[in-house]
Structures are given as structure tokens and as C-alpha cells.
């Protein structure tokens, strides 16, 4: 495969864009400008990644919706041509247990069925009152503590850590360990041996915890999975790996949506005022979806490989070709979200793809939405004078992790 795009008329070539694409300096919350330009001009085009391979980059909302649920589009990272995020992922793929995150139907359907139950709206909604208490208590503590403070440490990280610990039945006292290990696993710039060690430690930790839950079950998701293992519906290894996946996926993402979401809202005081002045759950729910759309924090692109030839528009994606779905570019697609660059909490936002699309759409989306609804509906009303205590240019953003984020967010009130 050529490393260049060539002009069909003159034959002139230009090198393929390298993915991930950089954001513009001084514009930390917008998608990479190249991704936006490609969406307008070459919405399905080749890019080059870290190992020199050249998967397709798909940037339009409509094309993502057509391809992500297509059964010829595979999430199985053992298929030749899979566009791994980094060398560590490539190295561990052959020894990683088969999970919902790396299987296709019918195996994916079976595995997902074993874990869907606790995450359906009806069951998640029962967590509203406990989450409200967690959020209120943390705000009380923040108000009683130093001013200014780091919103990330004082509030954004503890909220999802406490919630996921309660839901899974993981002792919160271990949060330093599981926060540190999961961020190492997700950090694209971490040394492979560190990421490998962190993921091994998480596996050992969950293995031990699930054995304990088998002996003395509680009313939590890990106990429920231990019960499914005993009933022969899943293996112990599958339960351990699922526990690790939920623990990893369950807190850094939501923490980032709290810190970066607050940053985005502070940059748009008129929108923040709308949120502060309402207690209408529908308005708050839509606001959460709009901030999810606007920020689309999963920044490494959703990765897939073609299991067969796929014709789409004027392109043929060949069997074995890698595919990267840039969710942020799709969520700023003006064909679906007019003036997509405007944060507008009143626009219909729910059809965004910040949680992906198709069979692998985020398992924890109802939980994440609920946590963010409680946070956005409470934090700015309880601390109406909340402000950033630094220049936005001085914040340090995380460009290498699976999720975009900020290393610390000083706030005052
Ligand atoms: C705002 C917070 C969150 C965002 C933006 C987010 C985003 C995503 C995205 C984009 C995917 C799709 C990946 C793909 O198609 O390959 C995904 C999948 C997943 N997410 Fe989330 N997520 C969030 C919160 C959570 C939470 C709280 C959990 C807790 C359980 C979770 C668990 C998962 C799991 C297990 C999958 C894999 C699903 C599958 O492959 O079938 N996520 N998430």
C-alpha cells in the first residue's frame, strides 16, 4: 500500500496524514483541524499509524453509522490488518482473553448478555440517590477544604471511582491502586512493561476479589458475575477480564467528562447559566449529551478491521484493511449538527456518537449519563461562583491517552 495520496490528474503525491491527528495549538477542545478537513473533502481516506500500516479513516457521521454495525466490520483484534492503537496493544492481543471488547457476534452477543443486566436504564436509575449523596458529600468536603483547589483530585476523579466501586463491589480504599493502574493501561505514552505490569496487577486483584465474592456474595455486579460463573454461563477468566474492563472503562472517562465538561461550560457562561437556572431533568439530560458530543473524549478512534470487501460511496474497503472511526470528527459533522462548533445545550444532541455506535456501543453509557446528570445538575448550582483559577493556555492536556483529558484543573469560588 502506498504511503501517499496521489492526484488522479497530475499524479502529484502528498504524504498520508499520520494518525492520531494533532489538535490545533490554542484550541484544546475542538477536533483536530485535519480530521475536520478530511470529513469535508475525503471522508473515507487512508492514514498512516505508528507501525507504518495505512488503515482507512472514517470521519462522517453517516458513514460511521453505516459501517460500525455492519457484520463485515470486525472488532476482533486477532484478524490480520487490525489497526492497533500502539505497540503494547499489538503485543498483548494474542494473549488477551476474548472479551466483549475484542469479539464479534455471536461470541460478542453471548458475552455482552452476561454483563448487560446491571447497566440497563431501570437498574442504573436506582443509583440516582446514592450518586446524589456521593456528589453532595464531595461538594461539602470541597467547600470545607482549601480554595483554590484541583477540581480533578477533589471531585472529578472521586465521583466515578466511588460510584464504580459501589456498583462493582470493589473496596474504595483501594482506589489509589485501581486509579493508577487503569490510567497506566490507558496511557498511550506509558512504557509497554509498565502497562503490562499494571494490567497484570489489575487481573490478579480482580481474580482475588471474584473468588471472595464467590465464597461470600454481596449485592454487587462482581457477585452477580461470580454467580454466573457458578451457573456455567461464563468462565472465571471471563468474569475477571470483564471486571478489569469495567473498572478501567468506568472511571477515567467519566472523570474527564466532569473536569473537561466543567472547563467547556466555564468557557461558555451563557450555557452554564442555562444549566444553573434549571432543575428540569430533560434539560439537564440534553445538556449532558451536548457536552458529550462537543468534547467526544475518546480520542484514539474506534478501531476495526474488514472481514470482507465493503463498498461504500466511491471507496472499496478490502478484506484485511484496518479502519479507524474518528468519533469527534463525526460529532462535529455539520450535516447532522449545524454550527457544530457551538456548544448549544438546547440542540437535539442525543444522536451523537461519543459512546460509539453499533454492537459495541458503550456498556456503561446509562451509568455515565446518570453520573454526569447528577454532577452537572448539582455542582454549578451549589457553587455558582466556580471559576477556573488558571489561564486555559496554562492547563496541561493529555494528548496520548485513550481519552483526552487534563492533568489538573485549578478552580476557585
Ligand atoms: C463519559 C464516559 C464514557 C465514554 C465517553 C465512553 C465511551 C465509550 C466508547 C466510545 C465505546 C465504544 C468502543 C468501541 O466501539 O470499540 C465504549 C465501550 C465500552 N464502555 Fe464506555 N464510555 C464511558 C463510560 C463507561 C463506563 C462508566 C463504563 C462502565 C462499565 C464503560 C464501559 C464500557 C465497556 C465495557 C465498553 C465495551 C463495550 C463492547 O465492546 O461491547 N464505559 N465506551
From TrEMBL:
Pfam families: p450. CDD domains: CYP105-like. Keywords: Heme, Iron, Metal-binding, Monooxygenase, Oxidoreductase. Belongs to the cytochrome P450 family. Gene3D superfamilies: Cytochrome P450 (1.10.630.10). PROSITE patterns: CYTOCHROME_P450 (PS00086). This is Cytochrome P450. It comes from Streptomyces lanatus.
Amino acid at each position: 500500500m502506498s504511503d501517499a495520496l496521489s492526484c488522479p490528474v497530475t499524479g502529484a503525491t502528498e504524504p498520508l496524514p499520520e494518525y492520531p491527528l494533532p489538535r490545533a495549538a490554542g484550541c484544546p477542545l475542538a477536533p483536530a483541524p485535519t480530521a475536520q478537513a478530511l470529513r469535508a473533502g475525503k471522508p473515507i481516506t487512508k492514514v498512516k499509524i505508528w507501525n507504518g500500516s495505512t488503515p482507512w479513516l472514517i470521519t462522517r457521521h453517516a458513514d460511521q453509522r453505516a459501517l460500525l454495525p455492519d457484520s463485515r466490520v470486525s472488532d476482533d483484534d486477532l484478524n490480520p490488518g487490525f489497526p492497533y492503537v500502539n505497540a503494547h496493544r499489538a503485543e498483548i492481543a494474542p494473549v488477551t482473553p476474548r472479551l466483549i471488547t475484542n469479539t464479534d457476534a455471536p461470541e460478542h452477543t453471548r458475552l455482552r448478555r452476561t454483563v448487560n443486566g446491571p447497566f440497563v436504564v431501570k437498574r442504573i436509575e436506582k443509583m440516582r440517590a446514592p450518586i446524589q449523596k456521593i456528589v453532595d458529600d464531595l461538594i461539602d468536603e470541597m467547600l470545607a477544604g482549601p480554595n483554590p483547589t484541583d477540581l480533578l483530585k477533589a471531585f472529578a476523579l472521586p465521583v466515578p471511582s466511588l460510584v464504580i466501586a459501589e456498583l462493582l463491589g470493589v473496596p474504595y480504599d483501594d482506589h489509589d491502586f485501581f486509579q493508577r493502574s487503569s490510567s497506566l493501561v490507558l496511557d498511550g505514552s506509558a512504557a509497554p512493561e509498565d502497562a503490562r505490569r499494571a494490567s497484570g496487577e489489575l487481573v490478579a486483584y480482580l481474580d482475588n476479589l471474584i473468588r471472595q465474592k464467590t465464597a461470600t456474595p454481596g449485592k454487587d455486579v462482581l457477585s452477580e458475575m461470580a454467580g454466573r460463573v457458578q451457573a456455567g454461563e461464563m468462565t472465571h477468566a471471563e468474569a475477571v477480564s470483564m471486571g478489569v474492563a469495567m473498572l478501567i472503562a468506568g472511571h477515567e472517562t467519566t472523570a474527564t467528562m466532569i473536569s473537561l465538561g466543567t472547563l467547556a461550560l466555564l468557557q461558555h457562561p451563557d450555557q452554564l447559566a442555562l444549566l444553573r437556572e434549571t432543575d428540569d431533568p430533560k434539560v439537564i439530560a440534553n445538556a449532558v449529551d451536548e457536552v458529550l458530543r462537543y468534547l467526544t473524549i475518546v480520542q484514539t478512534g474506534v478501531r476495526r478491521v474488514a472481514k470482507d470487501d465493503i463498498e461504500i460511496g466511491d471507496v472499496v474497503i478490502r478484506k484485511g484493511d484496518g479502519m479507524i472511526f474518528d468519533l469527534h470528527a463525526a460529532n462535529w459533522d455539520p450535516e447532522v449538527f449545524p454550527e457544530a462548533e457551538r456548544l448549544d445545550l438546547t440542540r437535539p444532541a442525543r444522536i451523537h456518537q461519543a459512546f460509539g455506535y453499533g454492537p459495541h456501543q458503550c456498556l456503561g453509557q446509562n451509568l455515565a449519563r446518570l453520573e454526569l446528570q447528577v454532577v452537572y445538575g448539582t455542582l454549578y448550582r451549589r457553587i455558582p461562583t466556580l471559576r477556573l483559577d488558571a489561564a486555559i493556555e496554562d492547563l496541561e492536556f493529555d494528548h496520548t491517552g485513550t481519552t483526552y483529558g487534563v492533568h489538573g484543573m485549578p478552580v476557585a469560588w
